[in-house]
Amino acid sequence: MKAKELLYQGKAKSAYLTDDPDRLVLTFRDDTSAFDGEIIEQLDEKGAINNQFNAFIMQAIENEGIATHFESRLSATESLVKRLDMIPVECVVRNRAAGSLVRRLGVEEGRPFDPPLFELFLKNDALHDPMISEHHVEAFGWATRDEIAQMHAASLQVNTILSRMFADAGLILVDFKLEFGRFHGHIVLGDEFSPDGCRLWDAKTGEKKDKDRFRQKLGGVMDAYREVAARLGIVFDA
Ligand code: ADP
Ligand code: UDP
After folding, report:
1. Which residue of 26, 58, 103, 162 lies most exposed, with the fewest beta carbons within 10 A?
2. pLDDT given at position 238
3. Consecutive 10-residue runs of the chain (238 residues): their mean pLDDT?
4. Measured between alpha carbons, how far is 165 from 193 in angstroms, rounded to an integer?
């Protein structure tokens, strides 16, 4: 399937129409943004690494019976996906306190949550992705109560699958963000799962192996992404 007209250019990925109205080509770029797009930099090879990382994770999730948009990887930086009617809500699962939760509630970074926390944010850079509740999602018509329940259940299932996978690789899955959409009326996981949208800490040393290295200017961002991928057994194309 060939990419045709550009449909949407996001901060890190571009979506192209194809001959099939139900399919898009997603291109993962090297652009890396933080703080709702205030900072944008190029990180060498990030597009290729995140595309292949995402393909591996989406396939693992799909194998466990969760519907995802992922169809196939087309090249180092491109994947074919189902075209979804995206729900403008970010679903965040937290196993430990970090990031905005620490700032919002003043808890200590690393505090564990059992059961995990589930939070919703409106996807809106101009408003800095404000936190919302499921009542806002329903009242504003972004998703129905049943769709919210499906996104909640799927997010927790993804957490169970990936927490185990990362634990086996010596990593703690601290938190992550998912985006869902509708495909012919069904809720399907879209967007991406990569170290850009999750927090991963080394289980022994606590060292950060995710986009916080970029946000906090710790350096070695792509080396950390490559290391995580290698620990999962992902082999990259050139
Ligand atoms: P952002 O929108 O945050 O700048 P990206 O650069 O990752 O982020 O852009 C990707 C865009 O494509 C996002 O708006 C995302 O919601 C959307 N998207 C992801 N997967 C799909 C899909 N399967 N169908 C339609 N849109 C998608
Ligand atoms: N996240 C994301 N995109 C966003 C906001 C958050 O991928 O627009 C991810 C982030 O990488 C982390 C989790 O969601 O893994 C929780 O993020 P948090 O609310 O702590 O916000 P942050 O401080 O990272 O902006």
Report:
1. 103
2. 64
3. 90 97 98 90 97 98 98 98 98 98 97 98 96 98 98 98 98 98 98 98 98 97 97 89
4. 13
Cβ within 8 Å of residue 223, ≥6 positions away: none
Fold classification of 6-82 is Phosphorylase Kinase; domain 1 (3.30.200)
Cα 57 to the chain's mean position, in Å?
10
Bridge partner residues of 91 (DSSP): 120, 178
Q: Which pTM does this prediction carry?
A: 0.98
Q: Residue ranges of the domains in the chain? A: 6-82, 85-220
Superfamily of domain 85-220: ATP-grasp fold, B domain (3.30.470.20)
Residue owning the nearest CA to atom 13 of ligand 1 = 10
Within 6 A (CB) of ligand 2 lie 90, 92, 98-101, 129, 175-177, 197-199, 211
Give yes or no for residue 13 CB within 6 A of ligand 1. yes
**For residue 196, how far is its CA from the centre of ligand 2 (angstroms)?**
9
